[in-house]
Structures are given as structure tokens and as C-alpha cells.
Design brief:
The protein contains two helices and 31 strands. It is mainly beta. Strands 27, 28, 29, 30 and 31 form a five-stranded antiparallel sheet that branches. Strands 4-5-7-8 form a four-stranded antiparallel sheet, with no helix packed on it. It starts with a strand and ends in a 16-residue tail after the last strand. The chain folds into three domains: 1-113, no CATH class; 127-293; 307-417, no CATH class. Helices cover 3% and strands 40% of the residues. The relative contact order is 0.11. A hairpin with a 5-residue loop joins strand 12 and strand 13. Bound molecules: fe (ii) ion (FE2). The site of fe (ii) ion has 7 residues, from loops. Fe (ii) ion binds next to loops. Keywords: Dioxygenase, Iron, Metal-binding, Oxidoreductase. Its cofactor is Fe(2+). Belongs to the carotenoid oxygenase family.
Length: 417
């Protein structure tokens, strides 16, 4: 299953991949056959525009509502839930950027906002992590107005257990975080929300490199926080993090600055890095693992918060002939062996490939398959490709033609039947 933003109606502005209506595309495998289905995530905001039959909300670059009367009693902020999809405790959830998650039926019909068995919808980010021993889920919700991020802790069935705040230096955008067996790690880049700047007509999200990046390591209940300061960088996505003796190992994609999408040119591309944290000493060590533009790193999800060896991450090669590709456009999948530094690849040529989801097929974290949607810009057709994770350079073990175009999108998940 994979989520992504698809505008239901002509929007007032469109900044891919940061706005649109969530649409989940799913392929089911059963007895040697594959079945495809896609559905919009029908949030309350989606239903308002669906009834109006036109765009009601504003866009990222022009937040003025297109149809203020059409909002009715709803606020001006649109719920879209287009970033990720997650299966936890028997619940299938479509996720946005700190807004209510929306529960879907196994066949992708929207059931309603997710409450975690509390009395109100629970704001969650798109990236949540499951503790490998307890099966509990950790997620976060940052705040646009106050220097705080709230950590949510739910049990293995998805029932809310507790939430606690973590104090920050400034209201900050935090897209992902690290969970290990014993710690939560927050990496807070200087992407700061500034309402005063917004009132002056500037962007409400400001990049303030002089503030540097702060890395917070804390116990799973928020206790005993320690902060390590380092040079400014921004992280959308962590591949994984884990304890190794007295250090914490973190594989992640490092952006030199927050730019909404890598567009090439004079800027350093986002690169895959390994960070070694020594919380007791307050020191760190950081090194690049691959010298090219990457994003959307994934691992075998069974290894979240535990030692993992392989990272699967898309990159862009010259065999993609698209003119002016959108940000975060890739066509080649890398397999990075963090033990040997060996990198193997599968170049899909002139086809756009997205994030790869690992489907386990054995014990090792490269025994299984990598699933990614492909889009062919010449024919407008889409396929789902399955690569053997042990031999990704070889021809796909399966290529399944989709009955319709599956546009570029964001994060996916493998959901066992
Ligand atoms: Fe993300």
C-alpha cells in the first residue's frame, strides 16, 4: 500500500509533494494473483470539497480559502492525510503531517478519524515507530506556535497510553525521529515556525542555520534528556537507529539545508549518512555512505530500533530523460550494505521509481522482495515491480502492469494478510 497527494479538484496552488488529497494505492497478492485498488482518503476536508464539487480550501502558497462560504463551520486548515500509510494493532491508518490519522478499512474505505480509543482524534505525524520488544507505537506531533513537540505512546493494539511534551529551543518542524530499544532520539534542525514573519508576509517556515541542529536523546518516557549540538542540517527521514554498546547508530538522509525538494544545481544533494552518537560523552561522529542524491530510505521493518545491515534508498541517474523532474523524483534503487560499504543498484532507466517497501521472505534483512511502483513518462503507464532484495541488480522477479496510471507518491507499507 502506498499513499501520496492527488488533488481531487483544480487547486489554487500546487506544490508537489506537499499538498493534495491523500490517495492510497494497494496491490494484494493472493495465490499467485495480484489485485489493484485505489481510494481517496476521505477526510472531513475532502468531504467538504467533494460535496461542493470544487476547491474550497487554500493552497500552501496561497492559504486564502478558495470558497470561504464553503468551509461552513470547518477551519481553514485542510486535512489531507497524504503522506504515509501504516498498519498497527489491526488498524490501517492514512497519515498526514501532524493532523488526525484516518482509519481505513482493509479495502481502503475511510472509516473516520483515529482516536487511539480516546475521546478525540489524535494528531500524529507521518512517521511513527514500533518498539521491537513491547510492540508499542511511538509518534510525535510538533506545534506551529510553541517550542514544544508532543510524543505519543500507544500500546500494541493502538490504544493511547500517554503523551508527554519535549521542550525545544523554538517551534520546529520535525518530520521523523529515531526509536531504539532504550531511547527516543530527536534531531531538531533549524526549520523554525515564525508567526511574526508570516504576519510580515514572509514564509511562516524559516531556515535559521545560525541556530544549528540539536540532537536530543531521552528515555522512552521522556526522562533524562541530553542535548548534543552540531552544525545546521535538516532530516526528513531516518532509515533506522539502534543501540551498539555505549553508542547509538543512526542511518539517515542529511540535507544541508531545508529546501522543499532537491532541484539540483548549486546545492549539495541530500545524502545518506551514518551518525554515531555518544550520549554520555556528548559527542558525535558523522560520515557519508554514498555520494549522490537520495531520499526515502527504508529497511526491513522488522529491524526498526534494532541493528539493521541493509538500507534501500532511491537515487537519480542520467537514464531518466524527464525534463525538469519534480522534486524527489528517482529512477534507481540502491542497496547499501552498511557492514561492507558495498553498494549495488537497480537502474529502472527512463521510469520513475519511488520508495521501496521491503517484503520479508526469510530471516536476513535482504531475504525478501523490494516493491516499488514505476511510472513510464513516455507511455503514461505504471507497474509494480518486485526485486529480489538479495540480488537487486538482476531483472525484477515480477512486473505487474497496473490497470491505470499510479502517479508519483510518498510512503508505503507492506501489510501481511
Ligand atoms: Fe516522510
Amino acid at each position: 500500500m502506498r499513499n501520496g497527494p492527488n488533488p481531487r479538484f483544480e487547486p489554487v496552488s500546487y506544490t508537489y509533494p506537499l499538498e493534495g488529497d491523500g490517495m492510497v494505492h494497494a496491490v494484494w497478492f493472493d495465490n499467485g494473483r495480484a489485485r489493484y485498488r485505489n481510494r481517496f482518503v476521505r477526510t472531513a476536508s475532502f468531504e467538504i470539497e467533494d460535496r461542493a464539487k470544487h476547491t474550497v480550501f487554500g493552497g500552501l502558497m496561497d492559504p486564502t480559502p478558495a470558497d470561504p462560504a464553503g468551509l461552513g463551520s470547518a477551519g481553514p486548515d485542510k486535512q489531507s492525510a497524504f503522506i504515509g500509510v501504516m498498519h498497527h494493532g489491526g488498524h490501517l491508518l492514512a497519515l498526514g503531517e501532524v493532523e488526525p490519522a484516518w482509519e481505513l478499512s482493509p479495502d481502503l474505505e475511510t472509516l473516520g478519524p483515529w482516536t487511539g480509543e480516546t475521546d478525540r482524534p489524535l494528531d500524529l505525524g507521518a512517521h511513527n515507530r514500533v518498539h521491537p520488544v513491547t510492540g508499542d507505537l511511538f509518534g510525535l506531533a510538533y506545534d506551529l506556535a510553541s517550542p514544544t513537540v508532543t510524543i505519543h505512546h500507544l500500546d500494541q493494539t493502538g490504544r493511547w497510553k500517554r503523551s508527554f511534551p519535549v521542550a525545544l529551543a523554538a517551534p520546529s518542524m520535525i518530520h521523523d525521529f529515531i526509536l531504539t530499544e532504550r531511547h527516543l532520539v530527536l534531531m531538531i534542525g533549524p526549520a523554525v515556525f515564525d508567526m511574526a514573519a508570516a504576519a510580515r508576509g514572509e514564509s511562516f517556515l524559516q531556515w535559521r542555520p545560525e541556530l544549528g541542529t540539536r540532537i536530543g536523546v531521552m528515555d522512552l518516557d521522556g526522562g533524562n534528556p541530553r542535548w548534543i549540538e552540531t552544525g545546521a542540517c535538516f532530516v526528513f527521514h531516518f532509515a533506522n537507529g539502534f543501540e551498539r554498546g555505549n553508542e547509538i547508530v543512526i542511518d539517515y538522509v542529511r540535507h544541508q539545508a531545508l529546501r522543499l525538494g532537491y532541484s539540483g544545481g548549486r546545492h549539495a544533494p541530500p545524502r545518506l549518512h551514518r551518525l554515531l552518537l555518544h550520549p554520555a560523552a556528548g559527542t558525535l561522529n558523522d560520515a557519508s555512505l554514498f555520494d549522490g542524491a537520495v531520499e526515502f530510505p527504508r529497511i526491513d521493518d522488522r529491524r526498526v530500533a534494532r541493528p539493521s545491515r541493509h538500507v534501500y534508498v532511491p537515487t537519480l541517474t542520467e537514464s531518466l530523460k524527464l525534463v525538469n523532474p519534480a522534486s524527489a523524483t528517482f529512477n534507481c534503487l540502491l542497496k547499501v550494505d552498511t557492514e561492507t560499504s558495498r553498494i549495488t543498484r537497480h537502474d529502472f532507466g527512463n521510469r520513475v521509481a519511488g520508495e521501496a517497501v521491503f517484503i520479508p521472505g526469510g530471516a536476513a534483512d535482504d531475504t525478501g522482495w523490494l516493491a516499488t511502483f514505476l511510472y513510464d513518462p513516455e507511455t503514461g503507464t505504471s507497474d509494480l515491480a518486485l526485486l529480489d532484495a538479495a540480488r537487486i541488480e538482476e531483472a525484477p522477479v515480477a512486473v505487474i502492469r497496473m490497470p491505470q496510471r499510479v502517479p508519483q507518491g510518498l510512503h508505503g507499507a507492506w501489510v501481511p494478510g
